[in-house]
Amino acid sequence: MSEQKLIEQLLVRAAEDAREFRRKYPDDEPNERWLDNSYTAVLPLAQDESGYNAGPGPHPELFDVYRGEVLRLLGSGGAPREATERDRVDGGELAQGPTRGEG
To answer: Which of 25, 62, 76, 86 is the most exposed place for a label (fewest CB within 10 A)?
Structure first.
């Protein structure tokens, strides 16, 4: 198995996440926290689906692939918005819903 299969699975997951984000937040753009949390959730799923384990680490190059695809599909022009108070739960921690396939 190759890293290319992992990248293909990340792109599939990015498309799913972008569709779900747009469905839930039709007039909004994702912030960096949402992108980071979503990537963290989908990386192990994409590794399982592809049969390729990238090993430990954050893998910034894989994050860039995922992030770029989500932003491209959402028409964000590569610039996520900054987190605001409305992103926070009870004024505290930033909110992040589960990614499909996360259990």
So the answer is: 86
Q: Provide the whole-model pTM.
A: 0.75
Amino acid at 67: R
pLDDT at 61: 96
d(CA 28, CA 80): 10
**Residues with Cβ < 8 Å from 80, sequence gap 6 or more?**
29, 30, 31, 32, 34, 35, 67, 71
Report the candidate in 7, 2, 18 with the shortest Cα–Cα distance to residue 75. 18
pLDDT higher for 96 or 47? 47
